[in-house]
Amino acid sequence: MLDKLVNLDRRIIYAIVLLSVIIPLMNPMGLTIKETESVKASYQAYEDLPEGALVLMSIDYGPSTAVELEPMALAACDQAMRHNQKVAFMALYPEGQALTNRLISRLKVLYPNKKYGEDFVNLGYKAGNEAVPLKMGLDFRGQFPTDTRGTPLSDVPMLSNVTQLKQFALVATYSAGFPGALEHIRITASEYGMPLVVGTTAVQTPQYFPYYASKQIIGLIGGLRGAAEYEKLANFKGSATGGMEAQSIAHFTIAGLIILANILTFLQYQERKGKS
Hints:
about 280 residues; alpha/beta; Rossmann fold; six-stranded parallel sheet; elongated
């Protein structure tokens, strides 16, 4: 019996691990998630804004990091829409414009009464890294003369009176790396004094904590865990919560299998030793 368990077909092991991922994704069990202060601050930044406030949201990630960053961006968009705030999307990251369109598609499903140009707008991707936020602060319409549909900003209802960056109540960047968060920290926040929320991948989060501690940014959301915390705070049913549960349960399953394998191997050794 021990020999059979020790030499168990690896496909059975793979199936057990696969189920430990699939089941929580399809049916989240509601594991306890404790919110960190930096995520609470990010959530509160939107909560403190009045109705009609303008939010500039920079979508600075691509498909490879969307699993971590899109859930937090979508939860923040949902929060803004619920509070009747208006979101202007931009991107320093080349693929950000396309992923903004995906966010907007989700918003149209969640809020069919919200209208493009009145409640949200896509200003698109601009090349130039730090030069983009630098010019935004000097001449916002010079940097973004039209939206991605070619409509002049003066004809976009929610931005018809916007000529300066400081007319936005909040800036948020959901960033996979370069260009993205650091450019906004150095220019948007530090140079122009704009309140800035940063969302980033788990592997990059530690490098941004000094900016949060020094209050150069007002909020920080780190990776899938941070996105799950944000979903809980915003009472938003997104993919991060199920993803965190799947990740946690899969880790416990793998650790349990390793421990079990060592116990079985030890028992097998003891059994053979007793026979010899």
